[in-house]
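Practice problem: predict the structure.
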Amino acid sequence: MSQYEQIKALNYSGAKQILRSPLHYQAFLNAEKKDTPALRMGRLVHLASLQYDVFKSEVHVGPDVDKRSKEWKEFKAGIADGVDIITADENAEITAIAKSVHGCLADLKLTECEYEQSWESHYNGINIKGRPDLVGKNPEGETVVVDVKTTTDASIEHFAKDIAAYKYHLQAAFYLEMTSAKKFYIVAVEKEPPYASATYLLSDDSIQEGKRLMDKAVNIYKMCDTFGNWPGYSDEVRSITIPKWAFTDIS
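Answer:
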């Protein structure tokens, strides 16, 4: 477990779970953290997009040979434990996505950038934490947060739905509170060729909605932590109705 994971505090990922139910939050905390292929690719894309020099030094492209071969064994012997080994195809894809992101970041003209640093704060009676992708200063001298998101469609019409579905506005509320930043930018980049990207400034009303979700999650967390009770869904029997779009008009 990393030092960040050991910090007892509510973060954006945990808040999403606790808004579903406190029981789901506890399951999230106790779940084994597995580096799935999707998570691994996302982590490498972020590293290449934000710290390409580090990516080049810490990630190695393996030879296109049988992993039982002498050549592979000799290559592997020269690689330190924990270093990521990727294929040439993976490297080409990651590099193409990173190049698209670099263009967006260059347009923002940020200075004093800090990448993927751990932040902690005290908020409404509890500790909160987070690891923003990038915190820096814009040309006006304001502190801003930038987050890189991969998506299937970076168009403004589609990505607005992604923000709502994945609660990126909740993430913005956490990061802005911790960093005292004034603005939250999202660089949305597509995962498939041509790897198109776009930069979005999250609106004030979206951030306020994220703040309302954050306050709700914090209050649930405080209540559950105080009484040591982390319930699931309601025990009451409730009436349920199918969505309006599921009704057939038979008139």
